[in-house]
Design goal:
By secondary structure, the protein is mainly alpha-helical. The protein has 7 helices and 4 strands, in the order H-E-E-H-H-H-E-E-H-H-H.
Length: about 150
């Protein structure tokens, strides 16, 4: 395959294979400590809250491009299991905050991410900063397109 069209098709095939692997990986719970395992989607929810990307059901729904109902179910489970606390906000808004256990999950996840990043550090040696920046720009564009598809499906 040649040309931009062929490259885009090849890129989509690689992305699909990568997504399938990530999906398998994402279904395995992250072991935090002895007896504590948290599924990946909940870990990412805790990460979004802990890093301040989203701290309400509505902002989490917008951040992940999923329904408020799906977010609420996850939040309820995380709250019941002691990973987050709910704080009254203004105008019927409930602000979410990590508990000590939620912070422990984030810390463990950050360590795991650091080990993953260490393994893919070879990318720094293989590509220039400009090429990596272009790649990130493309990923951002693809993320936007997927977000649009998700919005259309609601």
């Amino acid at each position: 395959m040649k040309g931009k069209d062929g490259l885009i098709k090849m890129g989509f095939e690689v992305f699909t294979k990568m997504f399938m692997k990530y999906d398998i990986f994402g279904k395995r719970p992250l072991k935090i400590s002895k007896g504590i395992k948290v599924n990946t989607s909940h870990v990412h929810t805790l990460e979004a809250i802990g890093k301040g990307h989203a701290t309400t059901v509505t902002s989490l729904s917008d951040y992940f491009k999923i329904t408020k109902g799906a977010v609420s179910q996850g939040i309820s489970k995380l709250h019941q299991e002691g990973y987050i606390k709910k704080m009254d906000g203004s105008h019927k808004t409930v602000n979410l905050e990590l508990t000590a256990l939620g912070k422990q999950v984030m810390k463990s996840h950050d360590k795991y991410n650091a080990s993953f990043v260490k393994k893919i550090r070879v990318i720094e040696e293989k590509y220039s900063e400009k090429e990596i920046t272009t790649f990130l720009d493309i990923l951002t564009d693809v993320d936007f397109i997927f977000g649009e598809f998700v919005e259309e499906m609601k």
